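Standup notes
- DV: blocked on the single-chain target, sequence here:
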Amino acid sequence: MTEAFIVDAVRTAVGKRGGGFADEHPADMAAHVIRTVVKRHDLDPEAIDDVILGCLDNIGSQAGDIARPAALAAGLPESVPGVTIDRQCGSAQQAVHFAAQAVMSGTADLIVAGGVQKMSQYPILSAFTAGEPFGSTDPWTGCRG
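- DV (later): unblocked, structure below
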């Protein structure tokens, strides 16, 4: 059986809600990572068989198949497909597993796999940041705190 290897690990810097990456599109953030891997290893973009990205809850600007626009934004040829996996908190890990399985089965030789997530897209603690005590009101009585 063919072996699969993780050749590199690249990521963007970590930001905070409303911080330096607030206006950055998730596809552009993922594209930066893809371009870095291609440049760092002097890869022929034509040799990439697929881009598989995990993304928890595809909403807002990361809705749909975020892997495809990320691949195109990274300058990969139109012939390189992209697919997005949503397995909640394990999405990026699942993307890496699917990539490894494709290589091990012989259906692919080179896949860019990982994850993209822009937490500013999520309404997590939105009530709390809007001033609701403890982040919410009582769902049965409507009372705060």
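- Follow-up: Residues 16 and 108 are 36 Å apart (CA to CA).
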